Amino acid sequence: MRKLSKVAALVCATLSAGVYAKSLEGIVLGADGKPVADANVEIHGLGLDARTDASGRFVFPQLAQGDTEVHIRASGFAHLHRDLSVPSEGLSNVTFTLKRSAIEVIDIVSTPLHMSSMESSIPISVLSGETLRRQQSATLGDSLEKIAGVHTNFHAKVASTPVIRGLSGPRVLIAQNGMDVSDVSRVGPDHAVASEASTATQIEVLRGPATLFYGSGAIGGVVNVVDNRVPTDNETRGEFLLEGSTVDEQKLASFNVTTGFDNFAFYADGFYRDSDDYEVPVMPELEAADHNHEHEHEHEHEHGHNDEHDNSGDFFVENSAEESYGFTLGGSYLLDNGFIGVSVEQFNREYGIPGHSHGDESHGGHSHDGDHSHDDNHEDEHGDEHSNEHSEEVFADLEQTRAQLLGEFNFDHALVREVNLRAGYTDYEHSEIEHGTVGTVFANETYELRIDTLHQPFYGWRGGVSLHYKNTDIEAQGSEAFTPPSSTEMFGIALIEERHFGDVLVQLGARIERVTMDASDVQLPMLDAHSHDDEHGDDEHDHDHDHEHDHGSELEITRVFTADHEFTPITLSAGAVWDFAPGYNLALSVSRSERAPSASELLSFGPHIGTRTYEVGALFALTHDEHGHDEHNHDHDHEEGPAIGLTDEVIDLETANNIDLTFRKTEGDVGFIFNAFYNSVDNYYYQVNTGLFADDGHDHGSHDHGGHDSHDHGSHDHGSHEHGDAHEHEGELPVFIFRTDDVILHGFEAQVAWQVTNTFKASVFADYVRARLKDGDAGSRDLPRTPPLRFGSQFSYQNESLSAHLDITRYQSQDKIANFETETDGYTLVDAGIAYDLPILDNNVTVYLKGNNLTDTEARVHTSFLKDIAPRPGRNLSIGVRGYF
């Protein structure tokens, strides 16, 4: 362990290396011949690591005789791997030379095989250290959005999940130390991820299919939050953070500490965050802002004014406050050949849900899930001065308890080299509270176990077998429980192997799973779904719709049945990394991954107020009776018109065929990573707009405030609607139904870094994804909420005590949109920060000031469900202090 290695290094300085039989002693130097201090030296596969001292020296005593692989990494340098043969008398004075790298190289810690951003066949990015602390945010998606290829579905700063290459939801796995975070963030955009960045040591992003390591739920990528909650050593160290922000009056405090004695290691962390509604530079409701602007323009014209629209005054996104806190306790027993330990975490978060209304709020429309092909689009905003008098303050109260058991064991055995054990239990619940009353409760209970067994090198091949089991019971109860309780069980087995053939590293893998989904109380309601043909100006017919529905009554259930589905997803993967020249490599990865549909994609049937839609799963289908298309009869007889019944279609696996091509420069003052990808997905589950509307199940009869039409469906003229017409459809939601189609996603990511001097570095990046249906009309082939083209630059200065950063990021406008979706304007964000290190009592304390959106730009996120009512925060200044001991 690290503490023991330092002691061994001190002893080595006074004794001859020959005293230690079968020892390895060496020195790590830079290309300039100077020693590299605090470099990490690891004996691959044995769980042994050491840190170099000030003179660059390290030692491993009592190392077994035979072939071994040494990995060395240090900040600012490219990784070094060297195969050595340790004789019976050991090795001493071995010199290792590291070459400079302009791009930080960080190892992935939660995959069985060694991987890093510059050496793997699949694209990987890692946030850690000062970069993580500088970019961390209250939500996970917002913390990661500066990584090339990763965007956020920004949900008014209270919730967000990562969007990786245009995919999110059930296709992107969110993990904590390699295991599913097991919340319900992949069910709804207003559901926060139950994980905290301020106490993490690093966050890993695997772009593209990562199903070999994490299961079929990772068909689009993985985000893994890593911390030291189960400590692997007992060196005493820790970190604390205090920060305050202006845009939302946020106050943040966090800490983590590791310590121990003898063979025992202990860990603790905790955090607290509190913030108010956040400020924006413009009126948050887009349609309301447009209407007010038009009104003011008319007013100026009448009075002879020609001044530009004045946006002076404070604007806030209402109901965007949050309060979060949590703590973790963990401990390990350190063995000669590894460790085993447990941890328990309590995570609590209470946050507002902006736009979570039932037709009586003056809010803009909502776009729907980033993995679905529709946009809820925009409410008919008129800037009603009474719009907030009847708004509902809805908030979520989230609680989660998570227990984890982690173990790593190394063996000097003829067959088995290493065994890694991961087990977890998660008890999650969050309540959505309206007017002080619990409306809906979401719960998720998950058991998970993964065992990776790695074998000794066999004819040059390194790898092993992974066994993976997960059982998830998820349920929603209440007025907005749009999915029935269900249980999903997965058992998988994977084989992963790699081997060097000269300058080429070949990586192969295969995985097979058995996934069963059971739901015993699936309901088929009698749904009064109808169209709004009268809003299209079709006045020649009789549209005598009766909208005096009893919204407070429950739907009549026509059938209750059991759904029992079994799937066998199979993943095949092959990759190669070719070091064709010193400091350069070319990587190719191809894979075929299958995914079983989630419970919400199959079984949904009800109002999902968080997305302002009435969701219907793929298990059901829209039908019409013989009178359903009689354009002269619109009296809404329940026995006529459209209806929803069980589908005749086969429920099949979603299949992704992905290819990644990567070109890297890994050494020198200039480094780069270029990725190009092509992903063809068959049977892609997504939602389409049926053109129908259904009641949201709430009683709106008592509200008389000039309500607005909840949804603009692309064919209405905003100026032609009267408030009374909108009020006629108050409390209705558009019906969206899941279906499958074949889609294509392709694009690129690029990153270039130039270490101009020892203290100054400049970087540029860009990413782009195009997501479309393989078939379909030219104007309706694009998938919704696809991230726009983005590019940016960062300039960094760092000396021994002072560091400064300037980030400029441009988001282009997005005009490649789906039906019922609107375009989004482009914008440029400017962020900056400065930090100064103060040595206090031999500890490193840093005071810092950072600013976000310094130009106070109106920025609406195209991938957001709330882009028309909740733009990004305005200008924000944060001041803080963080310390390491």
Automatic annotation (TrEMBL):
Lineage of origin: Bacteria, Pseudomonadati, Pseudomonadota, Gammaproteobacteria, Alteromonadales
Start and end residues of each TonB-dependent receptor plug domain: 118-222
UniProt keyword annotation of Transferase present: no
Feature: compositional bias, Basic and acidic residues: 292-312, 357-392
Span of the signal peptide: 1-21
Organism superkingdom: Bacteria
Protein name: TonB-dependent receptor domain-containing protein
Record family assignment: Belongs to the TonB-dependent receptor family.
Pfam families associated with the record: CarboxypepD_reg, Plug, TonB_dep_Rec_b-barrel
Organism of origin: Glaciecola siphonariae
Coiled-coil region list: none
InterPro entries documented for this protein: Beta-barrel_TonB (IPR000531), Beta-barrel_TonB_sf (IPR036942), CarboxyPept-like_regulatory (IPR008969), Plug_dom (IPR012910), Plug_dom_sf (IPR037066), TonB-dep_rcpt-like (IPR039426)
Keywords: Cell outer membrane, Membrane, Receptor, Signal, TonB box, Transmembrane, Transmembrane beta strand, Transport
Disordered: region residues: 292-315, 351-392, 529-552, 697-729
Subcellular location: Cell outer membrane
Its membrane topology: Multi-pass membrane protein
Domain TonB-dependent receptor-like beta-barrel: 372-854
